[in-house]
Amino acid sequence: MVIHEELESNVKSYCRSFPTTFGKAKGSILYSSDDRPYIDFFAGAGALNYGHNHPYIKERLIAYLQEDSIIHGLDMYTEAKQQFMTDFQEHILSPRGMEYKLQFCGPTGTNAVEAAMKIARKVTQRAGIISFMGGFHGMSLGSLAATSNRSSRAGAGMPLHNVTFIPYCDGYLKNFDTLGYLEALLSDTHSGVEKPAAVIIETVQAEGGIYVAPAQWLEQLAALCKQHDVLLIVDDIQVGCGRTGSFFSFERTNVQPDLIVLSKSISGYGLPMSLLLLKPELDVWSPGEHNGTFRGNQMAFVGASAALELRSNENLDQSVLQKGAIIENFLRNEIKPLIPEVDIRGIGLIWGIDFGGCADPMSAERVAKACFQAGLIIERVGRNDTVLKIMPPLMIEQDLLLQGCEIIKQTIRLIASGEPLASSIL
Predict the structure, then answer these.
(1) CATH code of residue 242
(2) What does this protein need as cofactor (predicted)?
(3) Strands, E, within 236-321: which ranges?
(4) CA-based angle 419:423:426, to the nearest 5?
(5) Cα dist. 256→59, 105, 200, 231 in Å?
(6) Domain for residue 282, yes or no?
(7) pLDDT over 80 (residue 217)
(8) Residue that is last in its domain, among 313, 337, 369
(9) What is the CATH number of the domain that holds 355?
(10) 3-class state of residue 257 by DSSP
(11) CA distances from 293 to 72, 73, 75, 105 (A)
């Protein structure tokens, strides 16, 4: 790791939490250079919903390469893009009665968020965006303006404008009437807030601490936006593509957003890709008005098509709900009794153990570090990083899922008792 310390920028972050060199990965396990296995409860920050090197997707990618197919195509018509659009229409849009245009943005989620906010402003001829406290939408200047984390915003080195933040439901401010407040902002001629172009929201705040918005609340928010002619953008970058138990995280509601942002696991294999879904009437772009050299990642199209087939063949939605129930049961019956002060939150296969209400909120950091020592990769999120985030690949085997949960349990038990931590708990 010496070369990393000598040459790699200080901006690196995840390697500080997981200080080893990784060489291989398969399914839900990462292997260090010395072949030590680590159960993956991180899933590439949500980019690996189908796990590492899934054979079904890998075979399709290898076959595509062996045929000398198009690798770089900008936004030209290609067979890979054509196939993906056909598959997305067949597997995702048509069965749900959804009508959207597909915009292929730059390869990262933040670029698709930028595109969503740009087109919302162009359509409405308004500049403002409403975002939520605890929200995370990206690190480029436009999306960063809609991201609430103070330390992330500090990296901009300049003021970030045209975004108004309001409290999230059931988030940091308990029992706050967010929708009533938003109604006042939009209706009151003395609110001091200009009518915005759009509201951008994560239906589950992941980096914000695993807060799940109730279905009825989301429906009321959508109705409020429609009433005031404000566009609704759902950022499904981290909790979309099946993470909550349905392909889109908002399917537990009757909401059909004006714009939907996808990235991370849309490619199926951890390949860079982002996608903006927009209602047809909003597609008022001029040619090339939002472009980028890598807005057509052909390998990602191939992986994405294979992933759509895979999730259908594996009945993945039902499997996610079943595994989610296993995690919830374990957390409430095995973890909560150890430290009653923790709060348990989540849905599908994204769950959080919040140590914020404990006498020592930084126990979350100690637990995460000890879990890594014991062979489990897990990260912390939320305010002051007091929430342990459980986010394994959707296709994780049940025994590995339970083994990872048991590592968390034994780690918490040892820390709570003051006993010394072993390098291998199980």
Answers:
(1) 3.40.640.10
(2) pyridoxal 5'-phosphate
(3) 259-262, 275-278
(4) 85
(5) 35, 21, 13, 11
(6) yes
(7) yes
(8) 313
(9) 3.90.1150.10
(10) coil
(11) 9, 9, 9, 10
200 with 271, same domain: the answer is: yes
Same domain, residue pair 46 and 167: no
Residues for the chain: how many in total? 426
pLDDT tier for residue 421 given thresholds of 50, 70 and 90:
low
Indicate the pairing of strand 22-26 with strand 29-32: antiparallel
Domain boundary among the residues 293, 313, 333 is at 313
- The verdict on 107 and 191 lying in the same domain is yes
CA distance 328 to 332: 6
Residue 198 to residue 258: CA distance in whole angstroms: 9
48 in a domain, yes or no? yes
Which residues constitute the domain of residue 106? Answer: 69-313
Q: At 174, phi and psi to the nearest 5?
A: -70, 140
Tokens standing for 251?
């399917």
Is residue 71 very low, low, confident or very high in pLDDT (cuts 50, 70, 90)? Answer: very high
| Residue 426 pLDDT > 60 | no
The contacts of residue 72 (CB under 8 Å, 6+ apart) are 294, 296, 298
pLDDT of residue 422: 55
Q: How many domains does the chain have?
A: 2
The residue-averaged pLDDT of 145-167 equals 96
| Average pLDDT in the chain | 95
